[in-house]
Amino acid sequence: MTVPDSKVAEIPDLGQFRELLRSCVERISHKYQAKFDASDIVQETLADAQKHLRDFRGKSEAELANWLRCMLSRNLIDNIRRLRSQKRNIANERRMHRPRQRSGQSTNLSLRAEQTSPSARALWNEELQQMQCAMETLPEAQRLAINLHHIQGMTLVQVAEQLNRSTAAVAGLIHRGLRTLQQSMGK
Question: In the chain, what are the helix, strand and coil shares in percent, each to the nearest 5?
Fold first, then answer.
């Protein structure tokens, strides 16, 4: 399927390989799936393929699919290398401050990136609202234990002292509360 300049009709539709490439990306390690979007890498691969289509020397659709998979794997490797190099860059490190709040105060969890898109912020806000509504349905003791431990950052021992309960009882409250939250949020 060599692409000569004069035969525009022979130029293949690379978009037909989008799902194949997406399924290849989805098979990579979960620790990398969270770092970049499959559709971005597929789009990058298809754009590269379009630029270099004249270099393709295959004759069949299977050869074209294999050529695209090779191009996709190179793009994945490049993205993973970029992630790893950014991980080691000291300039990327930031100190996280967790403000301590009293249990009666409203909590504003703002651990999102400074450069999030409007749609990502909207999704984050929706999930935060769902979480706050789900937290309100929990029994008082579970809600308070989760708030003190996960939101305010207290240790189990500190929470146990605050609630006048044993550490094991607090761990049970937190465990049951988190399980209930996960079920109510559908995760």
Answer: 65, 0, 35
pTM above 0.70, yes or no: no
* Nearest by Cα to 156 from 97, 165, 140: 165
- CA 173 to CA 62: how far, in whole Å? 56
**One-character DSSP codes across 53-117:** GGG----SHHHHHHHHHHHHHHHHHHHHHHHHHHHH-GGG----------TTSPP----S-TT--
* C-beta atoms surrounding 28 within 10 Å: 16
Kindly report, residue by residue over 4-22, the tens digit of the pLDDT: 443 334 667 788 888 888 8
What is the distance between the alpha carbons of residues 157 and 168, in angstroms, rounded to a whole number?
A: 9
User: Is-contact 156 149, C-beta < 8 A?
Assistant: yes
- The answer to whether 3 and 63 are in contact (CB under 8 A) is no
Cα torsion angle, 144, 147, 150, 156, sign: negative
From residue 109, give the alpha-carbon distance in Å to each of 54, 98, 120, 124, 184: 51, 9, 15, 10, 19
pLDDT tens-digit series, residues 33-55: 667 777 888 888 889 888 988 88
Cα 173 to its chain centre, rounded Å, is: 28
